[in-house]
């Protein structure tokens, strides 16, 4: 059915064109013969083809263009009085004798334009007459095209400033009045299309389809209407004052009164696009005042957004114009206008409201980059519009909120600025958890990218409030959906962020650390392993700093002392141990202990070690973990120099004891020989208990022996020569360090033992241990040959 | 039939010439056959003078019982054919009974002739002025010659000429208010006005303004009324909405109008009406007719 419709239309169009050509032919003949009567007769017949109601706007336009071209020829004829011998005034009457209105008015407009050109009557009178007479065509399409023709032929004849038609009683005002009136009438016709079925086929189609088609046809015609605004904008004489006093109020009046969604949107858009930015700025109040009066369904947000975009670009174009913005209080006006529009348009989806605020924010950032309070106001207004305490659910709305929040970050390149915006976190609260996290990541990335340091506890507080989606589980999050990898990324980002929080002033730094702790402690077992370490190291950094200053600031009553920091650390790490993440906690304790050691705080260091041992005993059950842990403990303990003999003995005893209790013999062996270092610290005033070193080593040997025996019992072959080689190396170390208990004889014995073992176990080739042993022997050889004191020492050992 | 006519061919030629024939304005007059002839134009109170020549056919004499010229104002009803009502009849005796042997010329004059009615050619009625020359003869019938002329009377612009303004409508369907700037128009006048739509609930397709002429003849039960539409002038294309006002500008000059004639000699009247017609999409017509008076204004040229 639709297809038939289109075919029919093509047929009608062809008929119309043929008709025009036919009559135009006779018209040309009459023109050639300078026969006015016939020229008028045939031109009227030709124009009668435009009376059709059967064509869609698109096709009608084709027809119109044909007639338009022909009318140009007629106009040339009219212009030349010598050809027809009738004065222009008489001609103006003569064409009005035509019986049909549409041809009559086309002819009248044509003669009218010649009339103005002849200057035999004031241009304004002719224009006024034409625009009034055109009222007679009330059919939307025909009327629109007729008036469009009028606009076309009069365009270069308006009494504009500096035009030849201006002067005397003809002023720019007349030109403006004329265009405005034509615009008003055209808009009325265009709006009316909405209510009038003008196209014969609409009855044949479904209502939805017809409506759609109707809308499409209407919007095809919109440029005819909009062109008037363009003409207005091109009138030289329309300067700001006239725009303000006449043009804008009248255009707006029409826009508001037409109460048509499509028209209002298009015309507002047009208005904003065709007139200069400066005018908009100076008439902002009027322009914005119109917005809440538009139909509630008008897409006013796009219009306003465009306005704000234009104004922002204008502001960005030159700094010279910025004072204008201040002078007209552009921000305040835009801001209140947006408020009113949102209030007026109850049905506006939330996304609309937010996108308006995004535009306003962009405007603010461009025009008033220095006015953070404005930015905050915008965010605040947005918060008020968001439904209280609920998350935004609309996907597009979420996108807009993210845009809203990202804008200040991009502009200022500095999260610190954003942190001073009190409404910023309140806006973030309205994001769903997922987006909230994404936004938090954006914030963190911004900090990282710009390398900005957050230096006060207050800001840290705000910042953590912002990124709380990452810091803790928010209500209603289900863990199942979390992607492990994403989660790690997020938490690593948080960890990196913690390092960006820094202040040279220890007191403030302590506050910062405390604030961070307060927040991250809520993170739960999954997050703490990520977040606690950076915090601990941050705190340890503070300790080092304090330690460095210690000498200079004695006596001052400072809250930030190493002691307080250590207390803090203790609590922090404790949180880790309880979640449980004992290995990590243990490492951190040891780090703390070392720091305490450096600060000469024996009890503190002892406490940390105690904690470490408690963890070892109670929490670390895995044998591999135990091995690692005990080696860590030993290593840390070895470096401690703060302990008194008693404490140290207790701790070393413990460590040795635990070493010997490891599950696997080789592990035992290795831990025990490692313990030997606890008794021999190669420092100037380090512990040097050669006897106990030897004890440890001997014990290690025993264990190695036992291990070997066990191996031969269970597997029929003796195993770990490696252990012996390792112990040999320890012997050599202490031997070189001058431990009197370690004698060359003992080393000699050990070497022989290993050699024997190796030979007896020839079947079992262990290249690794062989090589190890071989290189150890080579080392001894080397030392011997090197001579000097060391060479002498080694001289007695025979290999 | 030519030979019969030839046989009864009058024995003399009669010609009538007006004294100011060279300068007097000539206007076309439609004769019965449909062809137009140019005849002199007079108005009331003018002197009608001239000469009448009677020229007998070569070698013949015309015997007569007297020669006279009459100025007749006649009303002729077509349905009552042959009946003339003379509302004006003036006679001048030109010659006493006798014989005419050669061309003889008689001057005549009717001074300040009262000719209250205009020449009119209508559908059912004709009003004409004629000069009738009669050469009376006792036998073979009198010889008669006619000369038509046209009378037009000019009216000064009326001192009172109110506009026509009226609100009409069909309840809950269509309400309009129309206004014509005058109630009396001269023949070359322009009707200016507007139509204001107060209520529109029908889908109007277009609107025309018609000029209608209503000619009524006879009286009482024998009255014949004939209405003609002389002009059909489209005023509006498409459907207006409430509040629209549509301009009217209709030039009367292209149309063949006459002045309004009211009760001419109790025989006929010619009246003019403006008929405003609205046509809806189902081609239903809504109309309102208003009488206007048309008068003849002295042309200034």
Automatic annotation (TrEMBL), chain A:
Membrane topology, as annotated: Peripheral membrane protein
Subcellular location(s) per record: Cytoplasm; Endosome membrane; Golgi apparatus, trans-Golgi network membrane; Prevacuolar compartment membrane
Pfam families named among the record's database cross-references: Vps35 (PF03635)
GO biological process terms, semicolon-separated: intracellular protein transport; retrograde transport, endosome to Golgi
InterPro entries to which the protein is assigned, alphabetical: ARM-type_fold, Vps35, Vps35_C
Keyword Transcription: no
Record has Repeat as a keyword: no
PANTHER family per the UniProt record, alphabetical: VACUOLAR PROTEIN SORTING-ASSOCIATED PROTEIN 35B (PTHR11099:SF6), VACUOLAR SORTING PROTEIN 35 (PTHR11099)
Summary of the function given for this chain in its UniProt record: Plays a role in vesicular protein sorting.
Protein name: Vacuolar protein sorting-associated protein 35
Organism (species): Rosa chinensis (China rose)
TrEMBL record, chain B:
Bilayer topology: Peripheral membrane protein
Gene Ontology biological-process annotations: intracellular protein transport
Keyword set includes Transmembrane: no
Top-level taxon in the UniProt lineage: Eukaryota
One Gene Ontology term, aspect cellular component: Golgi apparatus
Location(s) in or outside the cell: Cytoplasm; Endosome membrane; Golgi apparatus, trans-Golgi network membrane; Prevacuolar compartment membrane
Keyword annotations: Cytoplasm, Golgi apparatus, Membrane, Protein transport, Transport
Pfam families for the chain: Vps26 (PF03643)
Family: Belongs to the VPS26 family.
Complex and partners: Component of the retromer complex which consists of VPS29 (MAG1), VPS26 (VPS26A or VPS26B), VPS35 (VPS35A or VPS35B or VPS35C), VPS5/17 (SNX1 or SNX2A or SNX2B). Component of a retromer subcomplex consisting of VPS29 (MAG1), VPS26 (VPS26A or VPS26B), VPS35 (VPS35A or VPS35B or VPS35C).
Function of the protein: Plays a role in vesicular protein sorting. Component of the membrane-associated retromer complex which is essential in endosome-to-Golgi retrograde transport. The VPS29-VPS26-VPS35 subcomplex may be involved in recycling of specific cargos from endosome to the plasma membrane.
Protein name, entry field: Putative vacuolar protein sorting protein 26 related protein
Organism of origin: Rosa chinensis
Lineage: Eukaryota, Viridiplantae, Streptophyta, Embryophyta, Tracheophyta
């Amino acid at each position: 059915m639709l297809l038939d419709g289109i075919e029919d239309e093509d047929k009608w169009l062809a008929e119309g064109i043929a008709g025009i050509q036919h009559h135009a032919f006779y018209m040309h003949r009459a023109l050639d013969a300078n026969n006015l009567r016939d020229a008028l007769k045939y031109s009227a017949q030709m124009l009668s083809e435009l009376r059709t109601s059967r064509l869609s706007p698109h096709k009608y336009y084709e027809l119109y263009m044909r007639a338009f071209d022909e009318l140009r020829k007629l106009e040339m004829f009219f212009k030349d009085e010598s050809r027809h011998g009738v004065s222009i005034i008489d001609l103006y009457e003569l064409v009005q004798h035509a019986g049909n209105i549409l041809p009559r008015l086309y002819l009248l407009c044509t003669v009218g334009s010649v009339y103005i050109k002849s200057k035999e009557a004031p241009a304004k009178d002719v224009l006024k007459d034409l625009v009034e007479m055109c009222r007679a065509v009330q059919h939307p399409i025909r009327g629109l095209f007729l008036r469009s023709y009028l606009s076309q032929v009069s365009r270069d004849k308006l009494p504009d400033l500096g035009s030849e038609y201006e002067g005397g009683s003809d002023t720019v005002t007349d030109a403006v009045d004329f265009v405005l009136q034509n615009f008003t009438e055209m808009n009325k016709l265009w709006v009316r299309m909405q209510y009038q079925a003008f196209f014969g086929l609409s009855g044949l189609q479904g209502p939805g389809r017809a409506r759609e088609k109707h809308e499409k046809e209407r919007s095809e015609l919109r440029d005819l209407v909009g062109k008037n605004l363009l003409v207005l904008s091109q009138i030289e004489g329309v300067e700001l004052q006239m725009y303000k006093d006449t043009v804008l109020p009248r255009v707006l009046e029409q826009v508001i009164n037409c109460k048509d969604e499509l028209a209002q949107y298009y015309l507002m858009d047009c208005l904003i696009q065709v007139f200069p930015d400066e005018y908009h700025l100076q008439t902002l109040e009027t322009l914005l005042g119109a917005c809440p009066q538009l139909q509630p369904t008008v897409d006013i947000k796009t219009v306003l957004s465009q306005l704000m975009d234009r104004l922002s670009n204008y502001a960005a174009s030159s700094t010279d114009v910025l004072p204008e913005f201040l002078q007209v209080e552009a921000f305040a006006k835009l801001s209140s206008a947006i408020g009113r529009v949102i209030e007026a348009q109850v049905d506006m989806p939330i996304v609309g409201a937010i996108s308006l605020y995004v535009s306003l924010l962009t405007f603010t950032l461009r025009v008033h980059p220095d006015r953070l309070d404005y930015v905050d106001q915008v965010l605040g207004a947005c918060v008020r519009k968001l439904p209280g305490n609920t998350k935004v659910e609309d996907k597009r709305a979420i996108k807009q909120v993210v845009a809203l929040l990202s804008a200040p970050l991009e502009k200022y390149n500095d999260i610190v600025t954003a942190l001073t915006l009190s409404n910023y976190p309140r806006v973030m609260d309205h994001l769903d958890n997922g987006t909230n996290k994404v936004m938090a990541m954006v914030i963190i990335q911004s900090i990282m990218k710009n390398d900005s340091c957050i230096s006060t506890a207050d800001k840290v507080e705000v910042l953590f409030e912002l990124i709380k989606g990452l810091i803790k589980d928010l209500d209603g999050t289900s863990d199942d959906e979390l992607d492990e990898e994403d989660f790690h990324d997020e938490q690593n980002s948080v960890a990196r962020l913690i390092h960006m929080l820094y202040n040279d002033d220890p007191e403030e730094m302590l506050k910062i650390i405390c604030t961070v702790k307060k927040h991250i402690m809520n993170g739960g077992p999954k997050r703490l392993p990520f977040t606690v370490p950076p915090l601990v190291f941050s705190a340890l950094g503070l300790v080092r700093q304090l330690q460095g200053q210690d000498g200079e600031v004695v006596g001052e009553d400072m809250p930030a002392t190493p002691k307080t920091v250590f207390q803090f650390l203790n609590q922090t790490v404790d949180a880790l141990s309880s979640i449980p993440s004992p290995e990590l906690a243990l490492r951190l304790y040891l780090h703390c202990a070392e720091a305490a050691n450096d600060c000469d705080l024996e009890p503190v260091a002892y406490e940390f070690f105690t904690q470490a041992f408690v963890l070892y005993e109670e929490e670390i059950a895995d044998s591999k973990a135990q091995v690692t842990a005990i080696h860590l403990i030993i290593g840390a303990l070895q470096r401690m120099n703060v302990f008194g003999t008693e404490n140290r003995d207790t701790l070393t005893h413990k460590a040795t004891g635990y070493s010997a209790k490891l599950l696997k013999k080789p592990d035992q062996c290795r831990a025990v020989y490692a313990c030997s270092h606890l008794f021999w610290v190669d420092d100037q005033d380090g512990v040097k208990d050669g006897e106990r070193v030897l004890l440890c080593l001997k014990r290690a040997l025993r264990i190695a022996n036992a291990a070997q025996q066990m191996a031969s019992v269970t597997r029929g072959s003796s195993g770990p020569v490696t252990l012996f080689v390792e112990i040999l190396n320890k012997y050599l170390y202490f031997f070189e360090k001058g431990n009197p208990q370690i004698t060359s004889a003992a080393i000699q014995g050990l070497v022989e033992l290993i050699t024997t073992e190796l030979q007896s176990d020839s079947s079992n080739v262990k290249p690794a241990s062989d090589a190890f042993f071989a290189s150890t022997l080579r080392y001894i050889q080397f030392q011997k040959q090197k001579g000097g004191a060391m060479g002498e020492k080694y001289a007695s050992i025979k290999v | 039939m030519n030979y019969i006519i030839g046989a009864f061919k009058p024995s003399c030629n009669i010609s009538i010439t007006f004294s100011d024939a060279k300068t007097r304005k000539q206007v076309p007059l439609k004769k019965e056959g449909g062809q137009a002839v140019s005849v002199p134009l007079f108005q009331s109170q003018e002197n009608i003078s001239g000469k009448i020549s009677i020229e007998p056919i070569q070698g013949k004499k015309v015997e007569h019982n007297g020669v006279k010229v009459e100025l007749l104002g006649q009303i002729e009803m077509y349905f009552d054919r042959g009946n003339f009502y003379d509302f004006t009849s003036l006679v001048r005796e030109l010659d006493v009974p006798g014989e005419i042997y050669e061309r003889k010329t008689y001057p005549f004059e009717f001074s300040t002739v009262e000719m209250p009615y205009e020449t009119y050619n209508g559908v059912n009625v004709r009003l004409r002025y004629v000069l009738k020359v009669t050469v009376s003869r006792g036998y073979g019938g009198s010889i008669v010659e006619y000369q038509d002329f046209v009378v037009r009377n000019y009216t000064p612009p009326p001192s009172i000429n109110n506009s026509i303004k009226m609100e009409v409508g069909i309840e809950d369907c269509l309400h309009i208010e129309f206004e014509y700037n005058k109630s009396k128009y001269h023949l070359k006048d322009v009707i200016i006005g507007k139509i204001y739509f107060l209520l529109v609930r029908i889908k109007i397709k277009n609107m025309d303004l018609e000029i209608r002429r209503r000619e009524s003849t006879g009286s009482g039960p024998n009255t014949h009324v004939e209405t003609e539409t002389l002009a059909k002038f489209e005023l509006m294309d498409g459907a207006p909405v409430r509040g629209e006002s549509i301009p009217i500008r209709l030039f009367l000059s292209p149309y063949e109008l006459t002045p309004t004639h009211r009760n001419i000699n109790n025989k006929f009247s010619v009246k003019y009406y403006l008929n405003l017609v609205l046509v809806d999409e189902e081609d239903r017509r809504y109309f309102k007719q208003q009488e206007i008076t048309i008068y003849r204004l002295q042309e200034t040229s």
